[in-house]
TrEMBL record:
It catalyses: D-alanyl-D-alanine + UDP-N-acetyl-alpha-D-muramoyl-L-alanyl-gamma-D-glutamyl-meso-2,6-diaminopimelate + ATP = UDP-N-acetyl-alpha-D-muramoyl-L-alanyl-gamma-D-glutamyl-meso-2,6-diaminopimeloyl-D-alanyl-D-alanine + ADP + phosphate + H(+). ATP binds at G101, S102, N103, G104, K105, T106, T107. It comes from Paenibacillus flagellatus. One of its GO terms (molecular function) is UDP-N-acetylmuramoyl-tripeptide-D-alanyl-D-alanine ligase activity. GO terms for cellular component: cytoplasm. HAMAP family: MurF. Pathway: Cell wall biogenesis; peptidoglycan biosynthesis. Its EC number is 6.3.2.10. It comes from the Bacteria. Belongs to the MurCDEF family. MurF subfamily. This is UDP-N-acetylmuramoyl-tripeptide--D-alanyl-D-alanine ligase. Pfam families: Mur_ligase (PF01225), Mur_ligase_C (PF02875), Mur_ligase_M (PF08245). The gene is murF. It is an enzyme of class 6 (ligase).
Length: 455
């Protein structure tokens, strides 16, 4: 399965599961030594065996495996794990849904998995394990009884999603939207769209392609994209020209309700506020219908979904302050959506936003931050707190609308504690604060202070 050569072991060794981390390894696992920029997993192979691993992969250019360590010698340990995942996937009758997009893919993955779980045994991507290491691990962690797997596919450049989709061979593929993240590697939004559409290369014949029809780039590039000869394309989105559109949207701080295509029934509810989340829920509706599920079962699944943490996670601080924790990641498009959500929320005395830098945006990073600042309006959002060097542009663009004294717009280049303290001075129990920033800004530390202190 991995095109390797056994060393120091025999056919009596049985492998149960795969791990790349000695901290979480279980008895019988095959240890996979990953090589990073500042570490080499081969250095921990002996420790892995000592903790119960049955054997280890061993990259040929790392010399001989340690004495007494059963090993499978391969040319490339990561590529071998990827081949292993592809081979295991082919052995199973599992049906796979692949989900990608610049924003919303994790939440969409969670919604699709919740829908399918109404009828099937479902496995889904955990956390952010959606790349060339994470996706193979997710496949190798599947129980043989798994009926469906919903796998998130992330990328930073061309060819990465093609690799993942060739491993997973999905029966349904979803593209949520095209944003601006990774612009420095892919050059343009068109480049990002092309990279996301690579998911179709591995799509099974006759499979479903559900994509955001509000994004003209996807429709324009689809005819020239390598894909199966036969597929079923379903467009979802807010625009009238889509196959699935939301109607009757109602929203509160706990979630959103909607119907589809103007129909009165069923009424769907998701435990997430925001029109962008409603649009992505349509992808789950499309997938559920494609696999023969009744609308009522789809509605039950959506109502019970549990989103991955730090994605519009509603929290209540000890002071009574409502915190919308969206600190997992940020791009211009996802930040715009979160700001629009905050503007639409009712029932709060004051609305406060804490915005961190949006990273990996290339040469236009300053422009993108200024555009976000220009969206902020004092009649809809009462206070603006910006964090990080790039977010200075957010504060500068927002300041003219809020008044030159700067009392309602504050910028903090590098001090989260001071930022949290200043928010505490204006935030009360009847207020709501949205926290949004790229992963590298670690704004969950600000959220944690809100949740552990009386403001």
């Amino acid at each position: 399965m991995v095109s390797g050569e056994a060393r120091g072991g025999d056919e009596t060794i049985v492998v149960r599961g795969v791990s790349k981390d000695t901290r979480t390894i279980e008895a019988g696992n095959l240890y996979v030594p990953i090589i990073g920029a500042k570490f080499d997993g081969h250095d921990y192979a002996k420790e892995a065996i000592g903790k119960g691993a049955a054997a280890t992969l061993w990259q040929r250019d790392r010399g001989a495996p340690p004495e007494g360590v059963p090993a499978i010698v391969v040319d490339d340990s990561l590529a071998a794990m990827q081949r292993l995942a592809a081979a295991y996937r082919r052995q199973l009758p599992v049906r796979i849904v692949g989900v990608t997009g610049s924003n919303g893919k994790t939440t969409t993955k969670d919604m699709i998995a919740a829908v399918l779980a109404e009828r099937y045994n479902v496995h889904k991507t955990e956390g952010n394990l959606n790349g060339d290491i994470g996706l193979p691990l997710m496949i190798l962690q599947m129980d043989e009884r798994t009926e469906f797997a919903v796998l998130e596919m992330g990328m930073r450049g061309f060819g990465e999603i093609e690799l993942l989709t060739r491993i997973a061979k999905p029966e349904a593929a979803v593209v949520t939207m095209i944003g601006e993240a990774h612009m420095e590697r892919l050059g343009s939004r068109e480049g990002i769209a092309k990279a996301k559409l690579e998911i179709l290369i591995g799509l099974e014949e006759g499979g479903l392609f559900a994509y955001n029809g509000d994004e003209p780039l996807l429709a324009a590039l689809l005819p020239s994209t390598p894909k199966p000869e036969s597929l079923r394309a379903v467009r979802f989105g807010a625009g009238a020209g889509n196959d699935l559109t939301p109607s009757g949207i109602a929203m509160d701080a706990d979630g959103s309700t909607f119907t589809v295509n103007g129909e009165k029934e069923p009424v769907y509810r998701i435990p997430l506020p925001g029109r962008h989340n409603v649009v992505n829920a349509l992808a789950a509706v499309a997938v559920g219908r494609f696999f023969g599920m009744a609308d009522e079962a789809i509605a039950r699944g959506l109502a019970t979904m549990r989103p991955t943490g730090m994605r519009i996670e509603r929290l209540r601080a000890p002071s009574g302050l409502t915190v919308l924790n969206d600190a997992y990641n940020a791009s211009p498009s996802s930040t715009r959506a979160s700001i629009e959500l905050l503007k639409e929320l009712e029932g709060f005395r004051r609305k406060i936003v804490v915005l961190g830098d949006m990273l990996e945006l290339g040469d236009r990073e300053a422009d993108f931050h200024r555009e976000i600042g220009a969206l902020l309006a004092p009649d809809r959002i009462d206070y603006v707190f910006a964090y990080g060097p790039l977010s200075k542009h957010i504060a500068e663009a927002a300041l003219p609308a809020y008044g030159e004294d700067g009392s309602r717009v504050r910028w903090f280049p590098d001090d989260k504690q001071s930022l949290a303290g200043e928010v505490a001075k204006v935030a009360g129990p009847d207020d709501v604060v949205l926290v949004k920033g790229s992963r590298g800004m670690r704004l969950e530390e600000v959220v944690q202070r809100f949740m552990t202190e009386q403001l």
